[in-house]
Specification:
- The strands form 5 sheets. Strands 1-2-3 form a 3-stranded parallel sheet. The chain has a 3-stranded antiparallel sheet with strand order 4-5-8. Strands 6-7 form a two-stranded antiparallel ribbon.
- The N terminus is likely disordered.
- It folds into 2 domains: 166 residues, 3-Layer(aba) Sandwich (Rossmann fold), CATH 3.40.50; 98 residues, Rossmann fold (3-Layer(aba) Sandwich).
- It contains 10 helices and 12 strands.
- Bound molecules: glutamic acid.
- The site of glutamic acid has 7 residues, from loops.
């Protein structure tokens, strides 16, 4: 028997880490999104990986004109450096359409005629993200005279398990805790769940680091990846910043914009929030010095495994 050539037995090179930050341009960058940007960026860089940017403006009614440019300018002002072109979801509608067609051909999705009030009249079961579990009314076909409003993905009565790199083991039964969920909305917009799965795969993202508010979406995204034959990335959900009332910082809770003029203080707060307090002598350091320290000291293991933190005077 001829011995194997060195190349035949060579161990394949490990895949390049590819992470991303995917802000929705529903308003300016606030402290909560800065924390997600810092965590995803440092984790990508310490793994010698890429950090991609994607503007998630697929939800047209919530998109604020000019917000995407403002977010990019702000990120640059904080010293973030991203790889490649910025992907913009509103320019990728054809890809979401193609994915939906594929799901239609495979009968993974079905048209649904239910309005919100009809769903509310049929179920009282609250879903993992505070909505209602879809009771499956249109699952076996539309009733006579009913017109399709949306397209829903069938979900299995099966427990999904994900080992989140920060939050640990997460289990969710999609049928009982979410129900068949919408991929194409009644207003003609593709849903976040579909766009995020299509785009993470198209961009080759293999490591997702984002806020814990999206933890409950992970099982839906894993199921959608399976239906479309796409790989599942690793997931790490960072704690989210809440205000004194316990609400997540967002445009809805009037979170103030972060200003690169205060980059040093804000980055120090973000690092403290993520379990990496800065040495006092670095408080007033120039940005390159801050980033050098952050890269040399970042460890995901130090990020607190909690869902929410009220940082008090952080911003
Ligand atoms: N666009 C989402 C947000 O701004 C993030 C989606 C994700 O990271 O999967 O909250």
């Amino acid at each position: 028997m001829t011995p194997l050539a060195a190349t035949d037995s060579a161990i394949p090179a490990p895949a390049l880490y590819r992470g991303r930050f995917a802000p929705s341009p529903t308003g300016p960058l606030h402290f909560g999104s800065l924390v997600a940007a810092v965590g995803s960026y440092l984790e990508a860089r310490v793994n010698h990986g890429e950090w991609l940017l994607r503007i998630e403006d697929v939800d047209d009614p919530r998109t604020v004109p000019g917000a995407a440019d403002g977010i990019l300018r702000t990120l640059a002002g904080f010293g973030f450096e991203w790889d490649g072109e910025v992907v913009v979801q509103s320019r990728r509608i054809d890809h979401y359409h193609a994915a939906l067609v594929r799901l239609q051909l495979d009968s993974f999705v079905y048209p649904c005629a239910c309005s919100r009030s009809e769903i509310a009249a049929r179920t009282g079961t609250v879903s993992v993200d505070g909505g209602l579990v879809y009771p499956g009314t249109c699952r076996s076909g539309l009733s006579e005279g009913r017109a399709a409003r949306a397209w829903r993905l069938r979900v299995p009565d099966q427990e999904f398990c994900c080992i989140d790199r920060i939050q640990g083991e997460i289990r969710q039964n999609l049928e009982r805790q979410v129900g068949d969920f919408v991929l194409l909305r009644a207003d003609g917009q593709y849903a976040y769940q579909l766009a995020v799965v299509v785009d993470d795969a198209a961009q080759g993202v293999n490591a997702v680091v984002r806020g814990v508010d999206l933890l409950a979406s992970t099982a839906r995204q894993m199921w959608l990846q399976q239906c479309l034959g796409l790989p599942t990335p690793s997931y790490a959900h960072l704690p989210v910043v809440v205000n004194a009332a316990g609400e997540k910082l967002s445009k809805q809770t009037r979170a103030p914009a972060v200003d690169p003029a205060n980059a040093g203080t804000l980055l120090a707060s973000a690092m403290r929030f993520l379990g990496h307090p800065l040495p006092p002598e670095l408080y007033a350091a120039p940005l390159p010095e801050f980033w050098r320290w952050a890269l040399a000291n970042w460890s995901m293991a130090r990020v607190p495994a909690v869902r929410a933190i009220f940082p008090g005077s952080a911003q």
